[in-house]
């Protein structure tokens, strides 16, 4: 189940998607301090985000084949 949440609800290691940047792919939260987040996305690298401006969607951890 996907759910939009604020920065205070994120923790390092959470998996997310950016609803306005689907081309970024899956991301993983690195830091969450107040409304500031850093996440590393599979197709966009490390991104600094303002959780008041962007509503990331938390997702389940992607499956790894092999």
Describe the structure in your own words.
With 66 residues, the chain is mainly β. It has a single domain (3-59), classed as SH3 type barrels (Roll), CATH 2.30.30. It is 0% helix and 41% strand. It has strands at residues 3-4, 15-17, 27-33, 36-41, 45-50, 57-59. The protein has a six-stranded antiparallel sheet with strand order 1-6-2-3-4-5, with no helix packed on it. It is globular. The model has no long low-confidence stretch (mean pLDDT 89).
> Any idea what the shape is?
globular
CATH level-3 fold name: SH3 type barrels
Q: How many DSSP helices?
A: 0
| Main β-sheet, spatial strand arrangement | 1-6-2-3-4-5
Structural class: mainly beta
* CA radius of gyration: 11 Å
Terminal Cα span: 25 Å
Summarize the structure.
The protein has 66 residues and is mainly β.
Write the layout of secondary structure elements.
Layout: E1 3-4, E2 15-17, E3 27-33, E4 36-41, E5 45-50, E6 57-59
Antiparallel strand pairs: 1-6, 2-3, 2-6, 3-4, 4-5
Observed structural traits:
0% helix, 66 residues, mainly beta, six-stranded antiparallel sheet, SH3 type barrels
